[in-house]
Amino acid sequence: MKRTIANVKLVISFLDSIEEWRDLALHEWNFREILNQKLTSLLHQQMVYWKQRVNIKWVQLGDKCSKLFHAKATLRHRRNLITSLSDHSRALVSNHSLKSDLIWNDFKERLGTSNFELMLFDLDSLFSQDVDLSTLKEPFSHQEVDEIIK
What we know:
about 150 residues, mainly alpha
């Protein structure tokens, strides 16, 4: 697959260099488009191959207490770790409690505060308590089903 990808790239670069000197003929241009589609397909196949290969390695070695498992866990921890944050004055904060305070304050600022004081409608009038819902327990009648289907 690696050799095929290299060959396709070589032919595409050859056609590109020809195009610098003259316009490509219609069949040359179509051939380059076909090659570009083939290259995309080959690169996708290569990505799928390596993804499957990694999954196979993980199934074989991942559950064991192996170097691979510990390396993956260390990488995941490093990726998820926030070592420092910068506050509003661009000063770096690396203390855990200061980072959590900074995140909490930023969250509160983004969320905003509510100045809600006046409600323009009456909730009691919207939700009356004397509604009889016992009809909801009854099975559907044939007439209701026929009306819905129409």
